[in-house]
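Weekend entry, working from home. Most of the wet-lab plans are on hold until the incubator is repaired, so I used the time to fold the two sequences that have been sitting in the queue since the last round of cloning. Logging both here for the record. First:
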Amino acid sequence: MSSFLTRYLHGESSIVHVRGSSFGPDPNQPTNTPSWLQDALGAITIAVPFPGATETDLIQDLDLSHIKIDFSPSGHPLISADVVTYLKQPNEFNFDLDITEIDPVVYLYLNYDSLHAFAIVQSDSPCPAQTTKSGDHQLTVKSKIVKAPFQVLPGGQKDFEEFLNRVFYEKKGKVYIRGTSDAQVDSAFGHIAVHDLEFNGVIEIQGMQGLGHPEVTSVSIVRGYQDALEISTTLKIYNPSNAAVNLGDLHMALLYDDHVIGNASIPSLALDAGVDNHLKVSAWLQGNDPYVIDFIGEYISTGIAKLSNVNLTISGNYPNATSSEFLRPLIHNLTLSVPVPPFDKEPLLADCQMNLLSSTVVMSLRNPFPGIVMTINNINASATYDIYEIGNMAANFEDPGEGWKEGPMILPGPICDVQCKGIVIKSEKIPVITKKLGYDAIKRALGGSIVVSVESQVGVMLGNFNLENLRYVQNNITTKVRKGF
């Protein structure tokens, strides 16, 4: 029966063999046919041609939606999608069909007139289906493809790469599908299998448009090593596409001012469709790199004019960026421009005190980074009031010859509960060379305070990570002015 129905739906004629039987349509009804005639008819077999259906386009349309492409496993990518098939029964069918399973083989074509498919999608097992009647001789069949292997066909790599480019960089795109499907059907003839039902269609894809500019929603320093500073961040990336994608684990270069300053690892870069996605990123800034020092200085400083323009670039042009051979060309050319958020922690300098008679200053410092110890080894700074430079100071706390009793300043991390509160550590008295134009402003503030700006070069350790000659700028520092030593 399965073979007969398959041929019928393909419009192919079948030969049906008919012979007599002693069993009538209703065995409970008496028959007037003599037994000898029943025996004679049972011995005769007649071959009768049974024509195929006049309408063979059983599958009117096939629609794939909620597509998910998963590149994270080793081997072939996996595809998941909701499948809706619209069927038109032949007019000769005057009985119900209930399709309980489908087993499609889907070929993907880049363009409508492409001669060859670039990929094939086929589930490892048939997909359960539900059938509803949607009109006269019209059926709607709903199913799901779950993690079906996506295989790029020989000679299809170039079209596949173009398909990925459409998904990732364009606003809209299309991919064309053709194929066949087997089906398990409950019908008036019982449970039967139908094979090789042809279909074709088009998938409308809203592209990811390059993913725009990811937003950094959190930044924290994890640990300072001698050769690297480990940072943990959270990226918010909006995926405007109607397709979800999992690019798997990515290892990418981190650039500042067009120079590589480290690398970033994104475990399982999974982007759901049409929503903001929050991704954990681990980054390592390389040691002994002036661009790393410049970046950190600009990030933590307040008062640098171009602070709002600080950007990092995450680039896939990095060795072993992905383990997926299918993604390598795409990831190699992938760049994400990431604006760095304003530094929202307490500034390094809490306040200062100027002692006129000893021409010294005491700095009140605090470490803004939870979970890591900051060490101030040396500082060379100048202070400005209004437009006037009022003084300079220099201290190398590592040099006992300068008379420092306590050595480098150790700043523990802040205490964090609902909010973080820095632990203020006061420096020893540091000699200051005052400027004539600014000295009058200092004397006028005797017994009170003035608000100054400081620009400095600082030698800092974050854990074991050394930042030498870090440029640090801070405005609006309250400086108390006292007469004593």
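Second, folded right after the first finished:
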Amino acid sequence: MNDEQNRLREAKAEINALFQNRYRVVAPIGRGGMGEVYLVVSNDQLRLQRAVKIIHKGDHAKLNAFDEVEALRKLDNPGVPHIIEIKQNDNAFFIVQEYVRGKSFQIIVKENGKVPEETVLLWMQNVAQIMDDVHSQGFLHLDVKPDNIMIQENGKAKLIDFGVAQNLEHRAAGSRGLFGSRYYTAPERLRGEPNDFRTDVFGYGATFYFLVLGERPLEIKANDEAPIIMMKRKLEAVQSPVIRFILQNCISFNPDRRYQKFSDIYADILQKDLYNQAVLNEERKRKSRWYGIIAMFAAGAVLMSAGAFQMHTARSRTYDSLISQGETYMADSNLKKAKHCYQQAIKLKKSEPAGYQGLYETYTANGAYTKVIQGIEELFSSKPAMRDSAELYYLLGNAYYENGDYDRAEYNLKKADDLEPSLEEHLVLGLTYCAQGRYEKAQQVIQKMRRDGNNTDGADYLSGQISERQGYQSDAVSDYKQVISETKDHALKQRAILSLADLYRKRKSFDDEIQMLETAQSEDAFANNIPIREKLGEAYYYAAENGGAAYYQKAIAQYRQLIESGFSSVQTYRNLAICYQKAGRYSQADATLDQMTAAYPDDYTGYMQRCFLILEEEEHRDPDQRNYAAFASNYRTMMHKAGDAASTDSEIAVLESRYEELQEKGWL
């Protein structure tokens, strides 16, 4: 048996032991200076393919590189492989992450030669988006090169191998040593100077150079600009003016002369057609025999002023287009794509309110009210001009209302009304009065709505809220049903559906709740609606708890779709794990909790739920086969992460009692 076969056998044994046979090793798929990577398949019914990266211990520099992996678990971008879980033994760290199907830039050029310029622009626009988001979340990659960027089967780029990555909070000169290739590494990094955004800009530019010319960059020197000067001369072979411009400003020897952030690169690629045309127009003028020497000297200034105007106009058009696309996606309940459009719009124009309004509308539609509050309050603090936006005040007031802070809700809704009165503000202000028990004020809002005649549906909904809070449930049901059947207002209809679902649940009318929510979900407008899907998952769960065990499977389907949509929460993962546990599918419950703790490493509830899961599993074993070591380990982690919450959480109190009982009986 050769060394590779021996190592494969050892890796299989280590992975099986650490992950309790939850993964089957298929084959090695990569090996480098820091370790190796294996393709694995999960042993549950889903048979999910994952990559397990093994980083060997023993090298101080390698251990330093691993320090950032825990932080990288929080990195949220579809262009970066998702880290699912991390474990370690005495010899190595084991990182389970998303398996990426596709080919690296290195392989693509090796197989096909240089890539057509239009294709390169599309790919590198995608990479610029990814890098900008990675930087905005506080990370540097520090090893951007063709081997570390893959094009997936869907044509989208994926930035891989964050083994050298660095958290901006921890960066220091020379703190990582040199893992990257000298052909793609910025000169200042070779000199051991501090890393920043521009370090990654250089690697991006060198990779761009490799794709468009089909040849490796020259070896970069720490204190010699000559290789970079020679590389820039070779750019004359590139046809696209915007590519030449971008590369000139990415691979400069002096980092101060490079792009300072990836959002500027992204914006310039978006405006490539206008930029290219401006350059071509100037080239034609220079060739014209009617242009004299003075005109030729002035050409640079003409190009800069005309180009700057055209780039500004293009940026405005792109911004407006992104806002429009976001609104279209919102109308289709595609919150993930809408959110992406609004985030890109904000990067183009940080001082315009429309992008922020759209972004916080996506969070509102997803029920992420705390994010809305934190985001808008911070925005008002950092950009006082945003306080002129009635829409932002409305979204903030609505979020406070949904979170039960009615005084702040009233304050912000009145601010919105002062700036620009709207039907939505009046409705939520009426709901706030209702929640405060100020029914007379709420009735005044209803009277105004009916008198104005432009929001009778909103008046009916508010009337239903008052009836429900005063104990007239039948009247409330009637009002909600009327709104659902008659209103053309998508947001108001959603409110009525969710309120009626809650009312049915209070009355334990689970069949009525499920039927109503399933009917809503069957409509195109609500087919992918996150709050309704979440509410339906809860309805299935409660129906299962009240005797309909088959409903667990339906609840599982809803929660899985929520997670796959990218708009899940801590509670979504926990609900899914609980449903698996209730259905007796313990391995799937355990795998879900692994995903939960990977996605939310600072939250204690995943460890708490695993404690309950382990207790139930052990109680199904014969007494002489029981082992509570895993329970004790998760219990200690839970208590550490819970902090002060441990003294107030009733579920922790149950586990504390169980822990003491197991100690008394000698199990621990």
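Plan for Monday: verify the second prediction. The chain has 30 helices and ten strands.
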